[in-house]
Amino acid sequence: MTTYFIRRILLMVPTFLGSTILIFVILQMAPGGPLEQTIQQLQAGAMQSGESVGSVGDIMGGGSSVLPPSALRELKRFYGFDKPIYQRYLSWLGVWPREIKHREVKFENGATEAQKNVGRGTYMTLRLEDDLVQVYDKDGKLSNVWKASIDTDGAEENLILATIFQTEFSGILTGNLGTSYTYDQPVTEVMAPRFKISVFFGLTGLFLSYIVCIPLGIRKALNHGSAFDFLSSVTIFVAYSIPGFALGGVLLVLFGGGTFWDVFPLGGFRSPTDVWETLSLWGQIKDQLWHAVLPIIAWSIGSFAGLTVLMKNSLLENISQDYIRTAFAKGLQEKRVIWVHAIRNSVIPIASGIGGVIGVVIAGSYLIEKVFNIDGFGKMGFQAILDRDYPITLGFLVIVVMIRLVANILSDIALASVDPRIRFK
Amino acid sequence: MPEQQEISLSILKKRWLKFKTLKRGYYSFILLIVLYGLSWFLPALINNRALIVSYDGELYFPVVSGYHSGSEFNQDVPGEALYRELQATWKQAGSDNWLILPLYPYSPFEDITVQGNKMYEPPSRTHWLGTDNTGRDVFARLCYAFNISISFALVLTILNYIIGVIIGGSMGYFGGKFDLFFQRIIEIWSSLPMLFVIIIISSIIRPSFFLLIFIYTIVNWIGMTYLMRAEFYREKSKDYVAAALSMGQTNFKVMFKHILPNSMVPIITYFPFAVVGGISALVGLDYLGFGMPPPTPSWGQMLDVGLQNISKWWMVFAPVSAQFVTLIMVVFIGEAVREAFDPKVYSRLR
User: Fold this and answer.
1) Whose CA is closest to B145, among B299, B292, B286, B40?
2) What is the pLDDT of residues A61-104, one digit of tens each?
3) Which of A212, B8, B134, B157 has its CA 20 to 30 A from that of A324?
4) Cβ under 8 Å to B: A residues 177-236
């Protein structure tokens, strides 16, 4: 058993690599990426100031443009497009050195040596040797901190351009998800508060749906075919046929104070900060719950139908088993037979599903977050795609993939621990 | 001994008869088929172009022939003739010219640029479900969107099934390296949040109807594939397969003539629920703005407009109810199909 789980955990690695490579390639190959968008914005800015500009293609090709080649190079470097895609992926992972603190160096007309101030009054000497550039410190020794390379594109006649830089291993494996383009903050800092919000809703919704669905399923199974069973089945059909976010929209129209009743706020996670801070602790709790009621209903509705039907069918199946008949034949009371014998076996499929539900609940909620205008994790990921904010998009997907992979293993562990008959191999 | 008339029914026929006894599912099935069939004739039912125009003794068929300028019928409007006004003026003047309008004389695309249309009109006798943010009739758009949604879900599901049967079937039937390879791919695929991947792809290329189906199929084939893999894997070890193989049948024939018909139960029972998934997915994508290109009528896009203007309640209720009614019919069908194909008999307590 332990071997099985160790193998499962090891198998996560190729799956993780495979899915990140796939996402990375799709994003990086896509036209209209952050580089092109920035260039377009700069172009639009230039257009407004009345200068004539060429097309994006011109600029990319280094032709007539408002962007000087050095600025273009700087942009490309900022977005990482100066390197081939496999290098970008590997340095994003953190196993390929990333170039940092780069500065440009010019070699004047035929010179083979140039000096560069690299900060704090330290000068480095760059020497052209064959096709390479070597960096020497002030004692004339080869520097082991600074490296340099020749820039080929955008080079002008009689002028050799080089870049001097340091290298560092830093990527998702070292916990560095990069810096967001739009927020100008480390990705982890952008994510943390939003992730908390989504987890709050996800876990509350999960907890609530289990609390409602398990007893409901049990009651339906015990009264199979009764009026109660029929009526609750109708509710389940309704819940199954209306997606959570659409229900959220209907609830907002009804209770958000548009045309009908003004009971709940129109959205948001809680009151704005300036109001929030004036509230007492009790007031804060009330405010939080007041904002959370509608989104949580929308959140839980998705798993409501599935869970209830699963619980009901699983219990029904168990009740028709021989061991239940045996228990009755032994003269046990109905209560004991059902609550001790049958229920224990019926929760097995529910327990095994918990991993999958967690994965979906935490990550798959951006539609609801959008409806209720909650600044959560899913909405952040969605907005990042719109903004072409690749560090956030990638970071978001990495976290979602990780949650799913871990959740899968968790549900197997849960299954194995509630059902001793199960032996994975 | 009296000759006993034994009517032998094929299993499919038995199941069909059983399905017919499940009224809720059966009537939903009939109703949905009729509505979907009708929805192909929407241009003749819900449209702002007249069916027949008789003008100066000559007959015109604008629904079929398309654009006619207003000046052709001596109507003083820029661009296309306004048939509703034309009818009113002719009636008032008592002229010999006449025209027949479709039952519901509004098109899903005519917006405020057409005279007399207003933004956000609440439901009334002329506009049954009001108008939207550009003055388009909500009811007309709702009906056209019904056709698109169902078509989308059907084509998508069938495509997924074809891929699922071929790849999943081969995985289960041949096993070995082929199976292992695709298992890894499926594992990678299922770890990705697929709606997000679709959004990424749609934000790069503006999808058309078939492109959207193509994208959605690429990310959505694994469910059916896995189901078929398990099914073929189980059937493969049965005696009839060994018998067919020993008689010299080819692998292809064994897979599609022998195993496939025996794997029909999960294929058919799963179908309605796959359709539900397809419809919901399209609404979600349209709501986010990554579905069908505008101005295609779509429930998701209407919901988006409605949720941006919460006080225009009809813009939210109309698409949600339409989606709800459609989905619940499909769910009823699915439940009845499951009951007919895969009945579970539960013994009662004691």
Assistant:
1) B299
2) 444 456 676 677 777 777 777 777 888 888 888 777 777 776 77
3) A212
4) 222, 224
